Amino acid sequence: MLTIRRFQKGDEETLSVMIRRTLREVNYTSPKSELDYLIPHYSPETMVELSETGHTYVLEEDGQIVGSGTVLPDGETEAEIVAAFLAPESIGKGYGRELFEALEADELAAKAQRVWLTSSDMALGFYEHMGWVNPNGYRVRAGEDNLLYMEKRK
């Protein structure tokens, strides 16, 4: 059974392990500089900080954590989705859609005029299918860090 719930203290280690594994196994086509930053970045401490700053959701299948995502406030009119990952074996089962429906329905995202995120190369098709667009042009990397930005506006 698939459930989505808010982050609870004690989830941080499992989330960190799942995210780092996904980065290594699924996002391996991302630029090495991105992975070198992201893999150590998603520590258990970071997961706790994200849950305290925003609203972190945990996706469970039969009681096992298989995904997560956080909605962060970004000023008064925007929100950012970060740390949105699925365990490799959960990709392609419709779980990403379930997770993103919860993230987009979150009060921080719902009240925002613009919600944005950065994407890996591997997730672009998913985001495009879900109605997200790259404000810099189709699949164009931009900014100082040469990232793929996606957004939804209301």
UniProtKB/TrEMBL annotation:
Entry annotated with the keyword Electron transport: no
Domain of life: Bacteria
Keyword Repeat carried by entry: no
Entry's Gene Ontology molecular function annotations: acyltransferase activity, transferring groups other than amino-acyl groups
PROSITE patterns linked to this entry: GNAT
Cross-referenced InterPro entries: Acyl_CoA_acyltransferase, Bact_Acetyltransf, GNAT_dom
Swiss-Prot/TrEMBL keywords: Acyltransferase, Transferase
Domain (N-acetyltransferase): residue spans on this chain: 2-154
Protein name, as recorded: GNAT family N-acetyltransferase
Organism of this sequence: Dysosmobacter segnis
